[in-house]
């Protein structure tokens, strides 16, 4: 019997594995609950689709690609290392790119960043968390000087009187989380009538891409209706006047015209938050995945600051991190602009510290962000090889058809994965790696709590851990083996030293403390910090910053050719690109294929019927999906889940217009039309 945590989302529900079967375990975040994904997760361990031998694709002398064929580990790793050496020799270190994932353990995230910068010497590393958490991270850092997604324990929400949730649908994405919202009056901001919106006291349904205007409007209402916490604003913040100068122009009737949210609902939402003894503002991907996503989150934080919530006991602002290690994954150096400990790669003091820990004299600078990296692949000034760990970009990246074309232009694509994901199927070399319960490692959940996931079952013969893969490649690239340990605890001990003194300081965390069940929320030096910001924010003057942000509409408004807007999201049964959940028969039976939610009138105008097939077409691609007529949908909006492969990929449609601060693509709104198939 082994105590562990779920392989999927950032709630990291606690579970026990006995004889390959999972059962829920009592833990503060899930309180003995699991969702359908967690309950069925043991099926991942016995999936017949599991890869157990490396695969190699031969190329003919003229470069034509053959079929993938089984190979030994030595052949596969020798081949990869040999090509990497040649590319670096001929084109320099930045000719090799690395793409990581927010589901990788802290140890893997850390060693992957070190591998890229030390063994490859490349600046070209980023990860799929850029598509997930980057806007909230940028806005949190801007406001508070530190991004710990949820700077308080989830259980604080139990005593909240009112919670505003902008762009999150936890009733489907992380159902056990919803029990923490039961005592609060819930305000849900979402253009769709989601399962979470059904629970709301007030559902604000702004037109897609107008969240920022709505947040500015709620700040306006808060001030105009006398709810500004003047003492808090004076003592704990700076920048209010500049932010207010903009919000003052967003009077309720103007906000109603732009967003469609009635004035009375705006006022009701603010009143609920302002009149509660304890209140919280939370954001999710719906408000973050926009070309103005960082500013939208800043606008929600402005509202929270005006009401005196962040850093106040029992209240606060937080973001709902999505991926299993979405928090830890952005702290240990697999992000283009960061070094371990959430240090900035451009900070000379941070660089010197990490160089000392790694025993090197120099490190590359910042590289391209995730989409920019993918877009540059195979181009004259871009990487000619890409190593992918824990990510399935052919399904999950925006403008996915274009990304697949870019992958095809590479000299070398290497993918480490459990199964032949859609990205792995295009690779030159596929490396089968261990998963979740087959290895030990730490994860950091959405409340900044570090968790130990213990190895519970033996890995199938033939697979290796990602740490072993990195070691094998590093040695072949001329690195001393001991610089790339393969034991997770040894890697973690180095991570502790590398993070010491940084914003995300793990120096007081140890496997022994975690195994003993201690609740360790970073920073841990050596005491845990379940609630950050109670005394001061992390800016040098201790004050939080209002941000002077203004509304910008969607990057691609609808027009005569593409008269509707499309938005994307998740369903209960699937997780991210579906590479894992599509292996589980029970989940596939419940949600087997791509679909599009459409208002019945919109479907009728396009000649579509419920249950039939539709083509959803944008400037970037065409997705085939089964029509679901949903009466609560806006007539100008369609919704597609993004978990499905092939012609059903929602991301064939999405717009890679990037946020200028976070480099987040605009996943959540693009212009489309519907066609009969
Ligand atoms: Fe819990 Fe998330 Fe796993 Fe569901 S997917 S059991 S909510 S950790």
What is the strand and helix layout of this fold?
Blueprint: E1 2-5, E2 14-18, E3 21-24, H1 36-39, E4 55-59, E5 65-70, H2 73-91, E6 96-100, H3 106-120, E7 125-127, H4 134-144, E8 162-166, H5 170-173, E9 185-189, E10 202-204, H6 211-224, H7 230-236, E11 237-238, H8 240-247, H9 252-259, H10 263-275, E12 279-283, H11 285-288, H12 293-306, E13 316-319, E14 338-339, E15 343-344, H13 348-358, H14 370-376, E16 385-389, H15 393-396, H16 400-408, E17 412-417, E18 429-432, E19 441-444, E20 449-453, H17 466-476, H18 488-499, H19 511-515, E21 520-521, E22 544-545, E23 564-569, H20 585-590, E24 595-598, H21 600-605, E25 613-617, E26 622-629, E27 637-641, E28 655-658, E29 665-666, E30 670-676
Parallel strand pairs: 6-7, 6-16, 8-9, 8-12, 9-10, 11-22, 12-13, 16-17, 17-18, 23-27, 24-26
Antiparallel strand pairs: 1-2, 2-3, 4-5, 4-18, 14-15, 19-20, 20-21, 23-30, 25-26, 25-30, 28-29
Bound molecules: iron/sulfur cluster.
How would you concisely characterize the structure shown here?
The chain is an alpha/beta fold and 677 residues long. The protein has 21 helices and 30 strands. The mean pLDDT is 96.
Describe this structure in words.
A 7-stranded mixed beta sheet has the order 5-4-18-17-16-6-7, covered by helices on one side. The longest helix is centred in the N-terminal third of the chain and has 19 residues, at 73-91. Strand 8 (162-166), helix 5 and strand 9 (185-189) form a beta-alpha-beta unit. Helices cover 28% and strands 19% of the residues. Helix 2 (73-91) crosses helix 17 (466-476), helix 6 runs antiparallel to helix 9 and helix 13 (348-358) packs antiparallel against helix 18. It has 677 residues and is of the alpha/beta class. It folds into 4 domains: 2-46, ADC-like domains (N-terminal domain of TfIIb), CATH 2.20.25; 55-131 and 325-515, Rossmann fold (3-Layer(aba) Sandwich), CATH 3.40.50.740; 134-320, Dimethylsulfoxide Reductase, domain 2; 564-676, Barwin-like endoglucanases. Bound molecules: iron/sulfur cluster (SF4). Iron/sulfur cluster binds next to helix 1. Residues 1-47 form the 4Fe-4S Mo/W bis-MGD-type domain. This is Molybdopterin oxidoreductase. One of its GO terms (molecular function) is molybdopterin cofactor binding. InterPro entries: Asp_de-COase-like_dom_sf, MoPterin_dinucl-bd_dom, Mopterin_OxRdtase, Mopterin_OxRdtase_4Fe-4S_dom, Prok_molybdopt-oxidoreductase. Pfam families: Molybdopterin, Molydop_binding.
């Amino acid at each position: 019997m082994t105590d562990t945590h779920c392989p999927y989302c950032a709630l990291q529900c606690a579970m026990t594995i006995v004889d390959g079967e999972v059962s829920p375990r009592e833990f503060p975040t899930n309180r003995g609950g699991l969702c359908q994904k967690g309950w069925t997760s043991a099926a991942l361990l016995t999936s017949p689709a599991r890869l157990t031998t490396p695969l190699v694709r031969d190329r003919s002398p003229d470069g034509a690609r053959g079929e993938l064929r089984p190979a030994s580990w030595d052949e596969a790793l020798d081949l990869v290392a040999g090509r990497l050496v040649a590319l670096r020799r001929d084109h320099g270190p930045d000719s090799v790119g690395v793409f990581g994932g927010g589901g990788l353990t802290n140890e893997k995230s850390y060693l992957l960043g070190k591998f890229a910068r030390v063994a490859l010497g490349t600046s070209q590393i980023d990860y799929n968390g850029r598509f997930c958490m980057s806007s909230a991270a940028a806005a949190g850092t801007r406001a508070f000087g530190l991004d710990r997604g949820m700077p308080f324990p989830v259980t604080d929400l139990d005593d909240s009187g009112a919670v505003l949730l902008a762009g999150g649908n936890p009733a489907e994405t992380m159902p056990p989380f919803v029990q923490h919202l039961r005592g609060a009056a819930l305000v849900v901001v979402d253009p769709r009538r989601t399962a979470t919106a059904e629970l709301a006291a007030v559902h604000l349904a702004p037109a897609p891409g107008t969240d920022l205007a709505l947040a500015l409007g709620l700040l306006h209402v808060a001030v105009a209706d006398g709810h500004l916490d003047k003492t808090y604003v004076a003592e704990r913040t700076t920048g209010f006047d500049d932010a207010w100068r903009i919000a003052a122009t967003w009077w309720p009737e103007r906000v109603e015209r732009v967003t469609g949210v009635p004035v009375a609902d705006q006022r009701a939402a603010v009143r609920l938050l302002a009149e509660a003894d304890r209140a919280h503002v939370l954001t999710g991907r719906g408000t973050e995945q926009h070309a103005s996503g960082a500013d939208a989150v800043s606008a929600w934080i402005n509202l929270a600051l005006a009401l005196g919530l962040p850093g106040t006991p029992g209240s606060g602002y937080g973001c709902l991190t999505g991926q299993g290690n979405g928090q830890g994954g952005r702290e240990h150096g697999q992000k283009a602009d960061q070094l371990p400990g959430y240090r900035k790669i451009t900070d000379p003091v941070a660089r010197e510290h990490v160089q000392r820990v790694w025993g090197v004299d120099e490190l590359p600078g910042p590289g391209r962000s995730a989409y920019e990296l993918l877009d540059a692949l195979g181009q004259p000034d871009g990487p000619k090889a890409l190593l992918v760990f824990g990510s399935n970009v052919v399904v999950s990246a925006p403008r996915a058809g274009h990304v697949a074309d870019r992958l095809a232009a590479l000299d070398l694509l290497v993918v480490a994965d459990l199964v032949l994901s859609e990205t792995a199927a295009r690779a030159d070399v596929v490396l089968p790696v261990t998963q979740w319960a087959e290895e030990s490692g730490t994860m950091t959940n959405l409340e900044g709590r570090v968790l130990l996931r213990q190895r519970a079952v033996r890995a199938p013969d033939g697979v290796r851990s990602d740490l072993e893969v990195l070691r094998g490649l590093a040695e072949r690239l001329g690195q001393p083996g001991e610089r790339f340990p393969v034991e997770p605890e040894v890697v973690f001990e180095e991570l502790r030293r590398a993070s010491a003194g940084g914003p995300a300081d793990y120096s007081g965390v140890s496997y022994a403390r975690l195994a003993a069940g201690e609740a360790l929320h970073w920073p841990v030096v050596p005491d845990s910090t379940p609630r950050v910001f109670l005394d001061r924010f992390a800016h040098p003057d201790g004050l939080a910053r209002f941000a002077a942000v203004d509304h910008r509409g969607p990057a691609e408004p609808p027009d005569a050719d593409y008269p509707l807007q499309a938005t994307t999201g998740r369903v209960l049964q699937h997780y991210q690109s579906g590479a894992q959940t599509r292996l589980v028969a029970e989940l596939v039976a419940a949600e087997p294929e791509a679909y599009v939610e459409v208002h019945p009138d919109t479907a009728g105008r396009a000649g579509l019927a419920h249950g039939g097939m539709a083509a959803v077409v944008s400037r970037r691609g065409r997705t085939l999906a089964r029509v679901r007529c949903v009466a609560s949908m806006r007539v100008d909006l369609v919704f597609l889940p993004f978990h499905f492969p092939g012609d059903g990929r929602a991301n064939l449609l999405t717009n890679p217009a990037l946020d200028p601060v976070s480099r987040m693509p605009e996943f959540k709104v693009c212009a489309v039309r519907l066609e009969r198939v």
